[in-house]
Amino acid sequence: MTSVTIDCFGNRNDLAPERFRTMAGEKHAHLIDAQEGVTYIGFGPAAVVGPIHKIVTEGTVTTIWWAYGLWADRETLTYASTKNDVLTIQVAE
Question: How far is it, in rounded angstroms, from Cα 12 to Cα 28?
């Protein structure tokens, strides 16, 4: 296993540096789960590990978080504090 850095759309800095942390790397929503005050957005098939955004609305304030994992685990994932943060994940070499 090796460590790689990904952005909020799952773009890896080692494979696509021109897309990493740019609007060119933005993906389209594939899955949406809207609950009261919280909306989860997935960017790939449910059975595939990928980026998930969590949008939380409290009163007039809306916060966007993101994580990397399975859609089924969306409610229990550890989310990065902003879409500008990057995450380090382990991938097979």
Answer: 17
Domain extents in the chain: 2-91
The mean pLDDT value for 24-40 works out to 86
- Spacing of C-alpha 69 from chain mean position: 8
Q: Which residues pair with 61 in a beta bridge?
A: 58
The tokens describing 75, both together, are 């409610």
- 19, two tokens: 């897309």
Q: Is the pTM of the predicted complex or chain greater than 0.85? A: no
Rounded Cα distance, 89 and 66, in Å: 14
What count of other Cβ atoms lies within 10 Å of the Cβ of residue 69? 17
How far is the CA of 30 from the CAs of 14, 27, 53, 58, in angstroms? Answer: 25, 9, 11, 25
